[in-house]
Amino acid sequence: MTGSIPALAAVLTVCFTIALAGLLLACAGPTATPIPASPPTPSPTPTPLPDPRAILTRSADQLTLDPYMEFVLEHPVGSTPLARGLNLVGAEGVASLPDRFRLALDMEASGTVLKLDVIVVEEQAFMTNLFSGAWEPVQKEQNPFRFDFVTESMAGLLAGMDDLTLMGDEGLEGEPAYVIRGDGPTEALTQLIPGALPDSSIPAVLWVGKVDGRLRQVQLTGPLVVGDLPDTVRVVRLVALEDEPEIEAPEVGAGVE
């Protein structure tokens, strides 16, 4: 009997140990499932900036596809000398390229504002008399501002731009546009603006539509023709028209309607 007491004690010890372990597990509750760590968020890949040269090439090509156009030239600073004592202040017009356009020119002579209208229909050219305002036939070469070369001149300016910098984009008349800065060849403008320096360059800022690639605006700063002030600023705006503008030869001797 005495020999069985140690064996019983051993059995009781084992049972007590098992019961204690079960009690501890019950108090601890269910084992929590580990939450996997979230994968690291990848850094966004920066969008590469478009090539300004490619933007201008597309824009130059687009110019040849727009035969109907509206055109405005302004001088925020200075004016364009046309002849001794006669300066071009501004111009606006419409065209059905290549051989129909109508222009309204604002000029200044000795402090006097002068208005001049021009119509070209194929080989016929007409200009209003500065004093009477009546239409008179003239040679096409007498036109002080050759709007028929606007597409060719602007395309040449875009193709010859150097030191290009994409400055960003901004809204222009409600449309997003790339803004590009560079130096443009003045020779490209000699047909559009008679007297433009043939072998020089001029700082230019260009606005090109982001969606349609059309050239919307050009700002030229500095001398473009002999006699220009060093800080002369010219702004050229182009608007492509969907419908052909009505441009007909005027009645000679009649006034501007």
Task: Report what the structure shows.
The structure is a single chain. The chain is of the alpha+beta class and 257 residues long. Helices cover 18% and strands 39% of the residues. The protein has helices spanning 4-28, 52-63, 150-159; strands at residues 68-77, 80-83, 86-96, 100-109, 112-121, 124-128, 135-138, 162-172, 175-185, 201-209, 215-221, 233-240. Strands 1, 2, 3, 4, 5, 6, 7, 8, 9, 10, 11 and 12 form a twelve-stranded antiparallel sheet that branches. Strand 6 (124-128) and strand 7 (135-138) form a beta hairpin. Helix 2 (52-63) packs antiparallel against helix 3 (150-159). The chain is elongated, with a radius of gyration of 39 Å.
Give a nutshell description of this structure.
The protein is of the alpha+beta class.
The largest sheet is: 12 strands, antiparallel
Order of helices and strands: HHEEEEEEEHEEEEE
With helices defined by DSSP (H or I, 4 residues minimum), what is the helix count?
3
- The average pLDDT value, as a whole number, equals 84
Number of DSSP strand runs: 12
What's the oligomerization state? single chain
Q: What is the global morphology?
A: elongated
Secondary-structure class: alpha+beta
Strand-residue proportion: 35-45%
Poorly predicted regions = 14-29
Provide the helix percentage. Answer: 10-25%
Termini, distance in Å?
Answer: 140 Å
Measured on Cα atoms, how large is the radius of gyration?
A: 39 Å
